[in-house]
TrEMBL record:
Gene from which the chain derives: ttuD_2
GO (cellular component) term, any one: cytoplasm
Record lineage: Bacteria, Pseudomonadati, Pseudomonadota, Alphaproteobacteria, Hyphomicrobiales
GO molecular function annotations of the record: glycerate kinase activity; hydroxypyruvate reductase [NAD(P)H] activity
Signal peptide positions on this chain: none
InterPro entries (UniProt xref): GK-like_C_sf (IPR037035), GK_N_sf (IPR038614), MOFRL (IPR007835), MOFRL_assoc_dom (IPR025286), MOFRL_protein (IPR039760)
Key words of the record: Oxidoreductase
Top-rank taxon: Bacteria
Keyword hit for Oxidoreductase: yes
Pfam families, per database record: DUF4147 (PF13660), MOFRL (PF05161)
Protein name: Hydroxypyruvate reductase
Enzyme Commission number(s) from the entry: 1.1.1.81
Domain MOFRL, first and last residues per copy: 311-420
Domain MOFRL-associated: 8-235
């Protein structure tokens, strides 16, 4: 058997590199304004974006340091050294007190913007959890509880963010409203959401939101979320409606995408093609239950093998897991675990599934796995150790399974986030 793991990792690394802030940010930054540049960043790549902005303005353009201020809120372990923009490491996927304080500081800086200042907002995926600012009448603990319930519900990220936006003082356009005295509000974002909807990236803090309080309440009912009475009251309060198209908050606000998941999938496809594989690209916007998508992809792989084709099957998007067990893992590991169970008797097939931010589910640690890889060595270890993939799948314990087979993919923080990359190689 030829070891395909180095190639799988090269395909993944190409997808990540195509969306790194060091590559995509500098050419899109605005000219220096009359006043200050107030940089407000959030998400898993926020620290890297802030550092890239500093290099551009302070080093390349020679801006006086006193004219650059800001705060970048990122996930624990994803911070990088900066000079003028303060980096705060905060909780993800469940918010913590550091994110609560950082969101308040972010809103304060936005309100201090003057008509001479540029408000530069830099966003990557993860910003929804990093910027936590509960609406009046809701406690931080209640907001955390809602977040946990949403994460376990199996709801796609767009629906999760619909609820989040109506329980926040910073999401759903409210950051733009806080900073509307600025000369200009420029948001530059790296997309981590299917179809690249600006209002879904970090829950759209600087763009209009077309979802409503009624939509949020309906989602709470549909997923039978357990929430406190204070949360129900907040979702019934018209004062918590998000900012809609036509709001004066957006009069001088612009939004641009720096990197999209499709560009990263295209980079991954090129590496597979250059390695001699026929490529089947299933798109960058896949959604659905991880184990169900894995079953469909396994059938594609088995069909290709039966036809004697040498194929690379690639996909992006953001899958979900409806949590029914008490194990550990994330959607990419669950996808890989489901694949392992379906392909265990088949030689010459290998696969990788990982999150481009370097963390798939997990407990919010920088050492969480990015995903997992499987091949014939996985199948052999399953047999020798007596591991039943179905039992681990039933307990949502993909991490526990792959920790025993030695197949967890550990990349550490990548400092960007363009959703998931999944690759199946059929030789």
């Amino acid at each position: 058997m030829t070891d395909r793991r180095p190639l799988l990792r090269s395909i993944f690394d190409a997808a990540v590199a195509a969306a790194h802030p060091d590559v995509v940010l500098a050419s899109r930054l605005r000219p220096v304004p009359k006043g200050r540049i107030i940089c407000l960043a959030a998400g898993k790549g926020a620290g890297a974006m802030a550092a890239a902005a500093e290099r551009h303005y302070l080093d390349a353009l020679g801006l006086a340091p006193s004219r650059l201020v800001g705060i970048a809120t990122t996930r624990h372990g994803h911070g990088v050294p900066t000079r003028r923009i303060k980096v705060v490491e905060a909780g993800h996927p469940v918010p913590d007190e550091a994110g609560l304080r950082a969101a308040d500081d972010t809103l304060r800086l936005a309100t201090e913007a003057t008509p001479d200042d540029l408000l530069l907002v830099l966003l990557t995926g993860g910003g929804s959890a990093n910027w936590i600012a509960p609406v009046e009448g809701m406690t931080f603990a209640q907001k955390q509880q809602v977040n946990r319930a949403l994460l376990r519900s199996g709801a796609p990220i767009g629906e999760v963010n619909t609820v989040r936006k109506h329980l926040s003082r910073i999401k759903g356009g409210r950051l733009a409203r806080a900073g509307q005295r600025a000369a200009e509000i420029v948001t530059l974002a790296i997309s981590d959401v299917p179809h690249d909807d600006p209002s879904a990236i970090a829950s759209g803090p600087t763009v209009p939101d077309t979802t409503t309080l009624g939509d949020a309440g309906a989602l709470v009912a549909r997923y039978n979320l357990s929430i406190d009475d204070a949360v129900r009251r907040a979702l019934d309060d018209p004062g918590n409606e998000s900012c809609k198209p036509g709001d004066s908050a957006f009069a001088r606000a612009t939004f641009e995408l720096l990197a999209k998941p499709k560009a990263s999938i295209d980079a991954a496809v090129k590496v597979a093609h250059d390695a001699g594989y026929e490529t089947i690209a299933l798109g960058a916007d896949l959604e659905g239950e991880a184990r169900d998508v894995a079953a469909a992809h396994a059938q594609l792989a088995l069909k290709a093998r039966s036809e004697g084709r040498r194929v690379a099957i690639l996909s992006g998007g953001e899958l979900t897991v409806t949590v029914r067990g008490n194990g550990r893992g994330g959607p990419n590991q669950e996808y890989a675990l489901a694949l392992a169970g379906l392909l265990k008797d088949t030689p010459d097939i290998s696969a990788l599934a990982a999150d481009t931010d370097g963390a798939d589910g997990g407990a919010g640690s920088a050492t969480d796995p990015a995903g997992a890889m499987i091949d014939e060595t996985t199948f052999a270890k399953m047999q020798s150790l007596g591991l039943d993939p179905k039992a681990y799948l039933a307990n949502n314990d993909a991490t526990g399974f792959f920790a025993q087979t030695g197949d967890l993919l550990l990349t550490g923080p990548t400092l960007t986030n363009v959703n998931d990359v999944r690759v199946i190689l059929v030789d």
